Amino acid sequence: MQIFSTTALFFVTALMELLGCFLPWLWMKGKAGPWVLVPATGALLAFVWLLSLHPVASGRVYAAYGGVYVATAVLWLRVVDGIRPSLYDLVGALVALLGMGIIAWGWKGAGGA
Question: Is the pTM for the entire model greater than 0.85?
């Protein structure tokens, strides 16, 4: 059950990272005012805080998080950018998620450290 709660936490973390990077991009492209930098800062602070909630070594957390980030970014591609992911996008995201699962599953045997 821990793998599901960890994945859900990673998903929310990825959304905060994507939002924290997307909003400044909108401003830099002239599609939004500088006010978007305020919620972007909040999203990036939330991103860092959410990553700190895991009780395992940071390197393992970041490695496992990467898989969920890839999958979330492909979902973002569809929902926010309005671009239908290719088969390669979807297969790549699945492979990344499998990698995350392998790393996270190994946390038990590694004692979390």
Answer: no
